[in-house]
Amino acid sequence: MNKKFYITTPIYYPSANFHIGHCYTTIAADAIARFKRLEGFDVFFQTGTDEHGAKIAQKANEAGVTPKEYVDKIIENAKDLWASLDISYDYFIRTTDEQHIKGVQAIFKKLYDQGDIYKGEYKGLYCTPCESFWTNSQLIDGKCPDCGREVKEVTEEAYFFRLSKYQDKLIELYDKNPNFILPLTRKNELVNNFIKPGLEDLCVSRTSVKWGILVDFDPSHVVYVWIDALSNYITSLGYPDEDAPLFKKYWPADIHLVGKEITRFHAIIWPALLMALGIDTPKQVFGHGWLVINGGKISKSLGNYKDPREYIDVYGIDAVRYFVLREVPFGADGTFSEEALINRTNADLVNNLGNLFNRTVSMAHKYFNGKIENKDVLEDYDKSLIDSVNDLDKILNEKMDGLKINEALEELFDIFRKCNKYIDEATPWVLAKDEEKKDRLETVLYNLLESIRVATVYLQAYLPDTAGKIFKVLNTDKTSYEFNTFNKDNKYNLNEPIHLFDRIEVK
Ligand code: MSP
Fold first, then answer.
1. Where are the beta strands (DSSP E) in 179-223?
2. Taking all residues of the chain, what is their mean pLDDT, rounded to a whole number?
3. How many separate domains does the chain show?
């Protein structure tokens, strides 16, 4: 039986203003999910929308509609954005789904019945845009440490989750599973800033917020939006029914992929909740860095915001996907600029891959009418190219297992670079002048086509649109993982060459 792999993105706040930074988590998760599927894993890739909370209620009010009407309309924007980026999610959860609401209510009740949730009074500082409570010592210059905005003092009757009880168990979890929080810098931040100072019990209900999941045994309270949101990862699988087929098959999650600012919710509150529920904790929480513009956040108010679909329209899906996956070491912050996107596209996609593909296929047509077989007339240096192609599997597996997505792409594109170098060494246009070298010429073209084919098997994980185009021209059905090594006995009957990418002129 295939091994399972459950990967999630955070569920997004519904928005009309997604920017390229928002696409980061989802494009990365998509590449990981596609890579695992390629390898034969039974993948469940989940994303969705986080639709409750005061902020949404306020926006709906401004628009003169009910919160539900507001979210029903606006979540289409997320679905459309993911479609335009070729995101291959298996399940899209909405926190307004009936199954999710019932699941969250059951979770809350179970924790209350067993004493992990109790009633008390909350006095504290709340940041409405971030839906986060803060203590005085966590504020920076008296403001929310995440967004820098004003916090409000709030006093109200509230339910609390005994987070403090799980302090030692969390430390044990991190110690026993060194890869639970990655990259390591994030783990150190969490341990030093949150765990070591001592965890306080967490306020998990609000009476002042109306748009949320009601605590069914005390309906003047709604469930704190982060408890509601985090639970999505199991309610989608059928929890609280622990015998639900999806839950049995996919839980625990293999990776929760999240941005760095929400790592603490996923690596502290979430595993503590799961421990309280008596179910397995996820295997890994990976907190990636941010894409920034001019060293700062991307935002509409700063005027550096563009809808990602504008970049897709101008440069193509795969130029955007490639840039996001390749430009920045995965985990660190990185700079987004249109200029960098153009440079990357021209250097790697146009000059390296595009050029290689076009000239190889063109030569195959020019010299052999597109029909190529291996004539096995080898030179010593052919072996080095073929060996590199056959090493890809091991290298890419290592890189992807460590979520070094940018390095994996670097290795993959190194094959195309080596193919270009091989053309320069083999000089097919010189071979073509000599009838006696015809078999060598055909072998050279065969080696190139076969190397491109194998690399493209992997390229499907990162640039599915481009990979599809390449396979179509190669006219091959050997596209799956089982055909991931250099085979001497394929036969090519190529379709006409195409330009995979157009050079982008800098204005
Ligand atoms: N709703 C919460 C998550 C709840 S999960 C139980 C949330 N939503 S969000 O819409 O604000 O963010 C969604 C994802 O986009 C997060 O992973 C976040 O880190 C990511 N990004 C938003 N802006 C970003 C950048 N500028 N750069 C990279 N990723 C960033 O948080």
1. 181-182, 202-203, 205-206, 222-223
2. 95
3. 1
Task: Report whether residue 258 contacts ligand 1, using a CB cutoff of 6 Å.
Answer: yes
For ligand 1, whether the C-beta of 13 sits within 6 Å is yes
CA distance 454 to 445: 14
Nearest CA to ligand 1 atom 26: 21
Å from CA of 161 to ligand 1 middle: 24
**Pocket test residue of 11, 93, 95, 262 for ligand 1, highest count of atoms within 8 A of CB:** 262
Q: In the predicted model, is pLDDT for residue 97 greater than 60? A: yes
Residue 1 pLDDT exceeds 70: no
pLDDT band for position 128 (50/70/90)?
A: confident
- Note whether residue 163 is domain-resident: no
Q: Choose which residue among 8, 24, 274, 324 to substitute to test ligand 1 binding: the one with the highest number of ligand atoms within 8 A of its C-beta.
A: 24
The answer to whether residue 298 is domain-embedded is: no
Task: Report the share of the chain in percent with pLDDT over 90.
Answer: 90
Which amino acid, 207? T
Convert the pLDDT of each residue in 364-381 to its tens digit: 999 999 999 999 999 999
Q: Is 291 in the pocket of ligand 1 (CB under 6 A)?
A: yes
The pLDDT value recorded for residue 52 is 97
pLDDT at 156: 85
Q: Out of 20-24, 59-63, 291-295, which region has the weakest mean confidence (pLDDT)?
A: 291-295
The answer, yes or no, to whether any atom of ligand 1 lies below 6 A from the CB of 254, is: no
Give, for ligand 1, the residue of 9, 22, 146, 302 to mutate: max count of ligand atoms closer than 8 Å to Cβ.
22
Taking the centre of ligand 1 as the mean of its atom positions, its distance from the CA of residue 263, in whole angstroms, is 10
The closest alpha carbon to 190, from 135, 252, 289, 260, belongs to 260
pTM of the full structure:
0.94
In 132-242, beta strands by DSSP E: 132-134, 152-161, 181-182, 202-203, 205-206, 222-223
Based on the number of CB atoms within 10 Å of its own CB, is 181 exposed (0-12), middle (13-18) or buried (19 or more)?
Answer: buried
Looking at residue 418, its pLDDT comes to: 98
Q: Ligand 1 center to residue 21 CA distance, Å?
A: 8
Ligand 1 atom showing the smallest separation from residue 10 Cα: 5
In short, whether 344's Cβ falls inside 6 Å of ligand 1 is no
Q: Domain span at residue 415?
A: 338-493
Distance CA 446, CA 415 (A): 15
User: For ligand 1, is residue 158 a contact (CB within 6 Å)?
Assistant: no
H or E element in which residue 158 lies: strand 152-161
Let me know if residue 385 belongs to a domain: yes
268-303 pLDDT per residue, tens = 999 999 999 999 999 999 999 999 998 888 877 777
Q: Which two tokens stand for residue 407?
A: 């390095």
Q: Ligand 1, atom 25: nearest CA belongs to which residue?
A: 21
CATH of the domain at 359: 1.10.730.10
Residue 208 within any structural domain of the chain: no
Where are any strands of DSSP class E within 37-135?
42-49, 91-94, 117-127, 132-134
